[in-house]
Structures are given as structure tokens and as C-alpha cells.
Design brief:
A: MetI-like fold; 77% helix; B: mainly alpha; MetI-like fold; 2 domains; three-stranded antiparallel beta sheet; 12 helices; 3 strands
Chain lengths: 269, 343
């Protein structure tokens, strides 16, 4: 009886793992089938106004890229503070807690916040608001990664640096950050992948445009928002375009994730 | 120089604090007119964009069909004359431009503006959020536990690393992809089994479940992996089967970590917008059965924001504030469990 129960439990558990894989397979399968049939060189060389996705792809990369350019240095500096300057103080622990809270704040709430502080005063959706929303999404992830990775650097490295008379910022930049480089890079790649796929914070901050952008102070093209809009269009062709965009988005995100994983594995060897 | 750098890092760290406080303050200030107008009753009021006439009996309400019968009974002393057309924006473009315009358009001008007021209540989306999250949890907890146990105890190292990676990739897929897949494939599939429409509370809940499943499984696997081998080995040495080891040694040991991972996943399911927006229906109406369409808080925000102004905008910010506060509460609860594990 006991052995029998054991067997059933193991089979059930294996079945759930297979079920999980089934969903992954199902999603990827439909994505590839639907997406590939709408892929063509044409859509990469034309904007949405002409049934292409060039402006969307560009817009999504610019929004996520600029958010990273602001978010990464700020996040790393904050992580350095938590680990190197404020470690074990109550303030640092407090900030750590808040950072976790911020990380799990619903993305749509971040969107409403940015809408109130940027879009309302400006009067219309614009690229900067989208960047700000993605920055808020990204910051806690970078802070957390940097904090975690720096905590893995052995204390002896810090002591050695200080002992030869290097100033603390020098030790941080040339010794500690170098030691934690791979881990932080991985975290940054994953953070970038995460904001690449965000839709909710962009819905009414950057909006999305069918034209190539005319500057960040205007409504900015965003691939995810456009996928949302296109998928419910009655036109078969536009839905196909949404699938193609969805396929490309997923590929970018998955490749970035695999790249991050590969970096970590490489380090272990 | 060193001092300068230290100050710079401190400012960066404080930015986290500043942004969070700013979020809370801005949401509160923007929601304030709605909070003052409706108070805490907002949470229990199921009417959205309903025009209420103050102290004056109205003619027979012709267009009130959109109010669920069970709820309009709770109105005391006032008659509701009109309700918003269900804001089914996934399919139709919403025409609520501004509140006053809206009144004139639909009400055929039968009363003056001075003794009417717009009522907004959050009960429908809040109930929708609670039930979709509940369905998601009921669906995903057993499966996630099975996956976690499989990855950490049953599979050999090679299989575990491959399936583990696959499950984690599933977690990385953007939520809008889940939504789109559900709209075109999963929704119709569920509808063909359980009946009803392919946009419903049930479909939304299940999609949420599938979406948080890999996340929950990965976190639970990590919690299970912290069980010391010595404990497991001594149980095996006593002749315990694998199932008994899992049930009596691993789960008790990793309990707090697993509960923490479930709570974090719950928070994620609650605030998820895009996976749900396509498939919940977007109708301001309680779901009488799981296969009915309804709406959830994030979806209300996603669908109605661009067209709102005045009081409806304040009401949306009120909902956003509630969602924000509940998510903070959830994450602290999860942290509480994780911390207990460490000590």
C-alpha cells in the first residue's frame, strides 16, 4: 500500500511537470505557427501605418534602452550603497524592504502613477513618460541584483584593497565590481528582458504610434501596446501582424534570458 | 572624492524610498475627490458610472438593465436611472468621454445636472479580482507543488536542469503573450469544455494560474532544495518511501518558504493586467457563474484610463491606490514568512 501510494505520488508529480511543459509547448507552438506565417522582410522595413512593425521594434528598444541607461547606473549605485556603505544599518534594510515592495508593485499601478505626474501636466502621452514608467519597473530589479551579487564578493578582497591604501570608491570600482561583474551583467540582462516585455506601464504613458517617432516628447511607438491594440482588430492581416510582433518580442526576451543563463553557467566552469 | 561618491550612492538608494512614497502620495491626492465623495463604501458599491438623482423620484428606469438585479436592491431611497453601457473595450471602443457629456447623450436630458450625481463603486472589479486570483491559486498551487517536487526530488540532475530551464523560460514570456494566446486558443478551448463564452472569469483565472505557475514552481523548488540532505537520508534509512519523505520531512521543513512563494505569486496574479485584459470580458457586472464575463481592477484601469476625466478619473485612481496598498500588504506578508524561515 505504501509503495503503491508512493508510486501514484511520483507519477502525479511527473505528470504536473509534463503539464507545465505542455503549456510552454502550446504557447510557443502557436506563436511560431501564427507568427512565422506573417513574417516577411516587408514588415521590418515599413512602419505600422503601412502594415509593418519597423517603428514598433525601434520604439520598444529605444524606450527600454533609455530606461536602462538611466536605471542601470542609479540601480547599481543604490546597490553599492546597500552593500558597501550602509550594510547592516537599519536604513539599508529599510531600503531593501522597500525595493522588494517596489518590485512587486503591480505594473499597471506604476502606469497610473506616471500618468498622474507626467502625462497629466504635459497633456498627452509621450515617450519620456514611457521611459519613466519602465525606469520605475527596472530600478528595484537592478538594486536587488547588485545588492545580492556584491554580497557574494569575499570580504578579504575589500580588506586587501583597503590595506594597500586605495580609497574606498577605488576599491569598489576596480576590485569589487570587477569580481561581481558576471553576476551583475546577468541581472542587468534579465532586467532589460523584463522591461522589454512590459505592456501595462506603457498603455497610457508612451501610448503607441503608427508612425516612426517624431521625438520623445510625442506619443511614442511601442510594440507591446500595439500588440494589445492590433490583436483585437477585426482585420485578419492586422491580427497576423500582432502575432508576428508577438513572436519577435518573445524571441528577443527568451534569447536575452538564455544569454543571461549562459553567462552564469560560464562563470561556474 | 570618496565622500562625494558615498553621498551619490546614498541618494540613489533613497530614490527607491522617494519613488514609493511619491507613488502613494500622488495616488492618494489624485484619488482624494473620489475618496471624499464615496468613502470606504466605494469598496462595496457595485455601481459604476451610474447617475443618481438626489431627493426626487424619477420616471421608470428604462435603461437600467445593466445593473445586476441582485445589487440594485441595495439602493436605499434613491432610484438609479441610468447605468454605463458596459465598458467592453476589448471589442468595442468605449464612448465615455466626459461625465457630463455622457449624461446628456444617454439620459435624453430628462433631468437637470444640479440634482444628479455620478456614482462610482469598485465592488465589481474588486470581486472580479478576488475570484480570478482565487481560481488561479486553486489551479496553480497543486501543479506548482508537483513541478517543484519533481524538479528537486524525482528527476535526475540532467532532466531537472532542462525542465527547470524550460519552466523558468515560461516565467519570462511577457504577459501579453499569455493574453493573446488565451484570447485565440485557450479561451475557446476552455469554452468548449465548460461551455459559456471564450471570455470569462474562469478563462481569466486559469490564464493567471498558468502565468504564475512557473514562478511559483521555481520559488518552491528553491525552498524545497534548502532541506538538509541529512534529514532526508535519515528518513530513507528508516525505510520511508519517497512520498513519505516528501510529505513528512520536506514539506514541514520547507513550509514557510513554500507559503511565502504562494503569497508572492498571489500578489503577482492580483496585479496582472495584460494576461487578463483580453479574456475577462471587461463588463461591469458580477459574474453569476464562473463562465460569465466580468472585470478586474487592473483591467478597469487599463481599459478606461484614456477616456476618463473628472470623477471617473478620480475613481480609477482610488482603485489604483487600493490595488497598490493591497500589494504592499501582500509582499510584507510574504516577507514575514520568508524571514521566519531564516531565523
Amino acid at each position: 500500500m505504501r509503495l503503491w501510494v508512493n508510486k501514484v505520488a511520483i507519477i502525479l508529480s511527473t505528470a504536473t511537470a509534463l503539464l507545465g511543459l505542455l503549456f510552454l509547448g502550446w504557447i510557443l507552438f502557436t506563436l511560431v505557427i501564427k507568427g512565422v506565417s506573417s513574417l516577411s522582410p516587408y514588415i521590418f522595413t515599413h512602419d505600422l501605418i503601412n502594415n509593418g512593425i519597423r517603428n514598433l521594434l525601434w520604439g520598444q528598444f529605444v524606450l527600454a534602452g533609455l530606461a536602462s541607461i538611466i536605471g542601470i547606473p542609479v540601480g547599481i549605485l543604490a546597490g553599492i550603497y546597500l552593500q558597501e556603505y550602509g550594510n547592516h544599518t537599519r536604513y539599508a534594510n529599510f531600503i531593501r524592504d522597500l525595493s522588494d515592495v517596489m518590485m512587486s508593485a503591480p505594473s499597471i499601478v506604476v502606469g497610473t502613477f506616471i500618468y498622474a505626474v507626467i502625462v497629466v501636466p504635459v497633456g498627452h502621452t509621450n515617450g519620456w513618460a514611457g521611459i519613466a514608467a519602465l525606469f520605475v519597473m527596472m530600478l528595484p530589479i537592478v538594486v536587488r541584483t547588485t545588492d545580492d551579487m556584491l554580497s557574494l564578493v569575499p570580504i578579504e578582497l575589500r580588506e586587501a584593497g583597503i590595506a594597500i591604501g586605495a580609497p574606498k570608491y577605488h576599491v569598489i570600482f576596480h576590485i569589487i565590481l570587477k569580481a561581481a561583474k558576471v553576476g551583475i551583467m546577468t541581472g542587468l540582462i534579465l532586467a532589460f528582458a523584463r522591461i522589454m516585455g512590459e505592456t501595462a506601464p506603457l498603455l497610457y504613458t508612451s501610448g503607441s504610434s503608427i508612425y516612426m517617432s517624431s521625438g520623445l516628447s510625442e506619443t511614442y511607438p511601442s510594440m507591446t501596446v500595439s500588440i494589445y491594440n492590433l490583436a483585437t482588430m477585426p482585420s485578419e492581416e492586422l491580427v497576423g501582424l500582432a502575432w508576428a510582433a508577438a513572436l519577435i518580442l518573445t524571441l528577443v526576451v527568451l534569447v536575452l534570458n538564455l544569454l543571461g543563463r549562459f553567462l552564469i553557467k560560464d562563470k561556474r566552469l | 572624492m570618496d565622500k562625494l561618491f558615498q553621498i551619490l550612492t546614498r541618494i540613489s538608494a533613497s530614490l527607491v524610498f522617494i519613488i514609493l512614497v511619491a507613488t502613494a502620495v500622488v495616488l492618494y491626492l489624485t484619488a482624494k475627490p473620489a475618496i471624499e465623495e464615496f468613502g470606504l463604501g466605494f469598496v462595496f458599491d457595485s455601481r459604476w458610472a451610474v447617475t443618481e438623482i438626489l431627493e426626487k423620484p424619477a420616471e421608470s428606469p428604462a435603461g437600467s438593465s445593466a445593473i445586476p438585479a441582485s445589487d440594485s436592491a441595495s439602493d436605499t431611497g434613491v432610484r438609479t436611472v441610468d447605468t454605463a453601457t458596459p465598458a467592453d473595450e476589448a471589442l468595442v471602443i468605449d464612448d465615455i468621454d466626459s461625465d457630463d457629456e455622457f449624461d446628456d447623450d444617454i439620459d435624453t436630458g430628462e433631468e437637470s445636472d444640479s440634482n444628479t450625481r455620478e456614482i462610482y463603486g469598485g465592488a465589481v472589479p474588486i470581486v472580479g479580482t478576488i475570484f480570478s486570483t482565487l481560481i488561479a491559486m486553486i489551479f496553480s498551487i497543486p501543479i506548482a507543488m508537483g513541478v517543484a517536487v519533481f524538479l528537486s526530488e524525482i528527476a535526475n540532475e540532467f532532466t531537472a536542469s532542462i525542465i527547470g530551464t524550460a519552466i523558468e523560460l515560461l516565467a519570462a514570456i511577457p504577459s501579453i503573450i499569455y493574453g493573446m494566446w488565451a484570447l485565440f486558443y485557450f479561451g475557446p478551448f476552455i469554452a468548449s469544455i465548460f461551455g459559456g463564452s471564450s471570455v470569462s472569469l474562469l478563462v481569466a483565472g486559469l490564464v493567471l494560474g498558468i502565468m504564475v505557475l512557473p514562478f511559483m514552481a521555481a520559488l518552491s523548488r528553491d525552498a524545497i532544495n534548502t532541506t538538509p540532505n541529512v534529514l532526508k537520508e535519515s528518513a530513507y534509512a528508516m525505510g520511508a518511501t519517497k512520498f513519505e519523505v516528501i510529505k513528512d520531512v520536506i514539506f514541514p521543513y520547507a513550509k514557510t518558504g513554500i507559503i511565502g512563494s504562494v503569497i508572492i505569486s498571489l500578489g503577482r496574479a492580483m496585479g496582472e493586467t495584460m494576461a487578463v485584459a483580453f479574456v475577462i470580458g471587461g463588463i461591469f457586472k458580477f459574474a453569476q457563474k464562473p463562465t460569465d464575463a466580468t472585470i478586474s481592477v487592473p483591467v478597469v484601469l487599463a481599459n478606461n484610463f484614456a477616456e476618463s476625466s473628472g470623477m471617473s478619473m478620480h475613481a480609477l485612481f482610488y482603485l489604483s491606490l487600493i490595488l497598490f496598498l493591497v500589494s504592499i500588504f501582500t509582499i510584507y506578508l510574504a516577507k514575514y514568512f520568508f524571514l521566519r524561515k531564516q531565523s
